[in-house]
Amino acid sequence: MVEGLKIDPDRFLKTFDLFSSIGWDSEKGMQRLSLDENDVRARRLLVEMLGSLGASIKYDEAGNIIAEIGEGRDTIAIGSHLDAVPGGGKYDGALGVVAGLEVLRIVRESGIRLKHKLALIDFTNEEGSRWTPSLMGSGLSTGVYDPGYIYSRKDRDGVSFGEALERSGFKGERTNNLANNPPKYYLELHIEQGPELDTEGIKIGIPMGIVAITVWEASFKGESNHAGTTPMSVRRDALAGFAKFAIGVREHALKNQGLIRITIGKINIHPGVHNVVPGFASFTVEARSPDPKAIERAEKLLKIIGETIAEEEGLEFEIKRSFTLDRTYFNEEVVSTIETVCRDLGLSYKRMWSWAGHDAQNMARISKTGMIFVPSVGGKSHSKDEYTKDEDLVNGLKVLLGTVIRLDRM
Length: 410
Ligand SMILES: [Zn+2]
Prior knowledge:
The protein is of the alpha+beta class. The chain has helices at residues 9-20, 37-52, 94-110, 136-141, 147-151, 161-168, 196-200, 238-255, 292-313, 332-345, 359-363, 390-409, and strands at 24-25, 29-30, 56-59, 65-69, 75-80, 117-122, 185-191, 204-210, 212-221, 225-226, 261-263, 267-270, 276-277, 280-289, 316-325, 328-329, 349-354, 368-374.
């Protein structure tokens, strides 16, 4: 029971299993890329279930599914995404959508009248695995991106987002975009995707926001030369410089673990053959932190580390920013309401940061937004081994429902 409303854990978990089965391969993990055959099947099932609840269903310019029940001037929206990364798990995104569906069902069946309309949103291409950028559906609908840019994005097979959306049958009107009808509140239940809650034995995570991200493009330039005839001592080996740099950066990040996470995820070596000393190494560096100042400090340090190594190795070092995303703050009213609900339900909780991006960060631009995290066993995500215990799925549903009811009464 939450605020006098009856939860049916069995029905919720069965519905979750039903959605999980669409695109699931026990060897390869989830095969449900945005708007592919399986995603479209899952979306149709969602629309069918929402339809049988009597929800009014519309699609926006990004193909986001927006279903509403009830009456009221303002809306409390719940959302997440049904698309998955290739070979991902069952929980990322789908949990939030299925729990939202269940909240709509519970409210409908109870016959209680909320002061707000209640909406469920399934965002298109959250993952960005089929078309970049990620958070595409929420970005287009909230006005971060313009449709021309998004519709022309191409997948690996050259299929544009616009074509695939048209074919899927989910293309809707611009007038339905969320920027034109901003919900008052937006809530998203999601698995943590990291190990904090599981390790600390805490049941619910309440993100204060989403960390800032900066990406740099960097390079070491040396000299390509013969792998046999060039003595070791006179080489200007760009890869050797890169190797020292990668270790130096990792040491800095290890010393500041709680504050910053730095990743070098991509490197290209030139000319990239076994018998030539690498003359050029270009790579990306990505930093995430809840504190933008920590990213600025890291930027200075990356320059110092790179230039020092360049000096030692006879190389040239260059670095420039290629992408910056500001930190997102969630709404304090929503965050503290989620805390109150956890206390009422007797569930342990903690405030934390989300180190991963979510549609909630786009929704925070137009709605009072908050998220609810449940533990990911072993912190595994974007993997077929992603797992959250049934008990924690149900806890997440309870907190989501309780938060909707409390916000409605405020
Ligand atoms: Zn997700």
